[in-house]
What does this fold into?
Amino acid sequence: MTGIRLPQATLLRHALIFLPLALLLLALTYVVDAFTDYNIAGIAIFAIAAAGLTILTGINGQLSLGHGALMAVGAYTTSLLLKGQPQFPFLLTLLASIVTAGLAGGIIGVAAARLRGPYLAGATLSLAVGLPQIAIHFGGLLGGNQGLNVAPPAAPAALGGDFPQERWLAWIAIVAAMITLFLLANLVRGGTGRTLRAVHDNETAARLAGIDVARVQVTAFVISAACAGLSGSLFAYWVGITAPTGFGLQLSLQLLSAIVIGGLGSLWGAVWGSIILVLLPVWTSGLASNLNLSSDITNNLPLAVYGAVLIFAMVVLPRGIQGTATSLFGGARQLYLKRRLNQQTVEVES
Amino acid sequence: MRTFLILTVDGVTNGFVYAVVALALVMIWRATRVVNYAQGAMAMFTTYIALFAITHGVTYWLAFVIALGAGFLIGAGVERVLVRPVESRPPLNVVILTLGLLIFLEALAPMLFGGQVKSFPAPFSRNDLTIGTTQLYVSPFDIFVVGAVLLTMVALLLFFQRTTIGLRMRAAAFGPEIARLLGVRVGRMLALGWGLAALLGAMAGLLIAPAIFLYPNNMDEILVFGFTGAVLGGLDSPVGAVVGALLVGLGLSYVGGYAGSDLETMGGLIILIAVLMVRPQGLFAARRQREA
It folds into this structure.
């Protein structure tokens, strides 16, 4: 049970986890087919937004039912930049999306810092429903219902001319997700993470300890929105089109459900949730089309299964995948340590 | 002036439907401290049941009653089977549970009843009334909607204020522990509350369907507007819910009429944020509410 000892320094330890993991995932994209590469990119993109939401809802305790709208801000920023100048540098579109979504998050965060519980839920819910309508109202600029087309990023020539589009997108998404998770993991372990948690656990105590609660809450919103912006920008490249229907209420609800099903408050939980979010519909729609059912059933079965899984998970796995795994593993570890201690005591006595 | 009148009538009629949804949400919130996000989806489902009955030869009024009954059973069933085991868990779990139910029902409905948009019959004409040559901007169906909602509200008020079961339900919501000591079957009262709330939701679904048509997520926006109304009113106050929902109905109607219909939902957001910035606990919350 002693196993490998990871270094104590947070930065180094996280680097030792994330670097090999990123390399492993990049290698994985060579083994699988293009469709799976596409799905891997999707998982990584959703993991970025879900990880950001974990900071806000899981760790800071602010419920957001409107994170899809913040992803829309990022996606529209990227799409607009590319509409104005198709040759706009790829990295700069990501950066611009992070900045605009972060700004939007700051504005929402200032309002949200005054609201609690269901009032915050109501405000963010109407954000999820209201914001995409702007794209329809300003149809001339934002493309209306048809949306704006986004050309997928081209793989650099150095990788060879026949490097698959999907694999390049998966690479970008994996690298972006790993960097985001690495930064967020450091943040959560550090002082910022402690203040975020302190505000969640007991606001009055946090205030007494000298924490500016409102400022911390706005900070959480900005960080979380910046992640949503990055995710939204990549989402635009991934889907190839940015339209209001892509950022409906469903998206916001799926993000929230992903982090709860994965295990609220854990960054790994956000990853598990994103895997379920992307792969469950793929599996169920594959199953449904194999069964030769009517289109009404085939089209809706994935969502029905997703809804059922959510309900089932809340009744059976209340702490999500990560929480359940941790407590199972932790329980086993504790049992082992206790046994060993008992044995040692017996040895000493004899 | 003419536009203003039309928009006002529209706003009031819609506001009354939102008020029903808002009341249903407030009822569940007061009883179990849960916001039932599946309220709209449950209403959509019972409207499909009503339409199914109508297309199989049942009269509108019988179908109306069937839908209300189905709503009651679904609501009570959801509380008993799904919500109760999750009640003692972190509050977010119940939120996700009702969201899961929302997604599930919106996928189940097209699987059972077909996914295409359907029209839903109105029991009265939806054309405006005229007296002599003056047009009144009010249709018989509008009058029916407002009348039905007002009647329901009075019935609810009498039920909660004048009957023993109503008293028990209030006691169970106000102080479950003490109510239990006094012999109130709290669990049953909660199921009853969810059932009644879902019945209200079913009614809202039936009243709005002729105007917005019937499709799997036709109630999404209605739920958001009803919720906005309830939050405006303070979530704990039935009167507040009705006033809030009417405000939302009127506000949306004016925004939609004067600024463009695609800005309606944005208008709802702005109204909500504006009010909450001044009164973070809603308009009608007298004391500081328990934080959820």
User: Anything to note?
Assistant: Chain A has a mean pLDDT of 87. The CA atoms of residues 18 and 179 of chain A lie 8 Å apart. Residues 320-349 of chain A form the longest helix (30 residues). The beta strands of chain A are 148-149, 241-242.
